Amino acid sequence: MAQSSSTAAQKPEVSPTTASQQGDNIAHALAGAGGGLLSMTLTYPLITLSTRAQVESKRAQSSTYDAVRRIVQREGITGLYAGLDSALFGISVTNFVYYYWYEWTRAWFENAAIKAGRASRKLTTVESMIAGAIAGSATVLITNPIWVINTRMTAREKEVHSDEVLPGGEGGSEKNQKSYKKKSPSTIGTLLALIRQEGPSALFAGVLPALVLVINPILQYTIFEQLKNVLEKRRRVEPRDAFLLGAFGKLMATSITYPYITVKSRMHVASKQGPKDNMFESVRRIVREEGWVGLYKGIGPKVTQSVITAAFLFAFKDALYDMSVRARRTVPAKIVAQ
Length: 338
Prior knowledge:
Blueprint: H1 2-9, H2 16-55, H3 64-75, H4 84-115, H5 125-155, H6 174-182, H7 187-198, H8 207-212, H9 215-232, H10 239-269, H11 279-290, H12 299-337
C-alpha cells in the first residue's frame, strides 16, 4: 500500500498550485475580455469620431459636434457604430491575450520574489514595465490584423476614395452620399477585399507603430499597479477605485503616446494607390503638410474615449473577476454538499 502511494506521488502531475495559478490567469483573461466588451460598447461612438479625425484630409477638419452631425446625416445613428462587430471581437481577443500574458508574467515575478526571500510579492515598477512589455508585444502580433480591418471599416476610406475625403468631412455630391449609405461592408467582406486588393501583408500594416505603442499599456498598467499597491496598504481596492485609477493611468499614457496613435491610424488606412510611408516618413509627412498639430488631430475625442473606456474596463474587470472567484468557491462547495 505504501509502495503504491509512493509510486502515485512520483507521477508527473500538475501541482495544485500550478493548476490554480493557470485557472487564475484564465479568470483574469476572461474578466478582461468581458470588461473590454462592455466598455467598448459604451464608448464606441467616440472611437469612430477619433479615428475619422485622425485619418481625414486636412481640408476636412471639423469640430466634434460637426463630425457627429455629418455622420448622422449621412449614415444615421448606426454610422457612429461602423465596424463595431470587428471592434468587439478585436477587444475581446486583445484583452484576453493581454491579461493572460500579463498575469502569467506577474505570477512568474511573484514566485521569483518568494524564492529570493523578498519581503513583498508585489511587482516593482521595473517588473510591472517588463510584464506590460511582454503582454503588449504578444497582443500586437496576434491582433494587428483585426484592428487593421476595424480601422478600415470605421474610416470607410474605400467607399469615398473617388471624392478623396472621408465621411464627416466636406465634399461629395448628394448622389455619392446616397450611394454611400447603401454601402456598408461586413467584417468578412472588408477582410476579403483587403487581401484581394492589397495582399495578406496589408493585415500587418502599422505593426511597427503598434509595437512602439506597447509603451502605452506599459505606462498605463505600471501607473495603475503602483497606485493600486499604495492604496492596498490602506484598504481593499473596490471597483470604483479601479475605475479612477484606470482612468488616470490611461490619461497619462494616451497623452504621451498620441502622436504614434495618429501615425498608426494613417498607416492602417493608406490605400494601395496612395503613398506608403514607413513610420518615420509618415511622421515627417504629417509635420511637413499639417504642422506639429497634425500629430494631435482628434486628441480630444481620443483621450476622452480612452480614459472612459479604460475606467469602465478596470471597473468591469475587477467586478467580473470577483464574480469568477466567488463562483469557483461556490461550485466546489455545492458539489461537496451533494
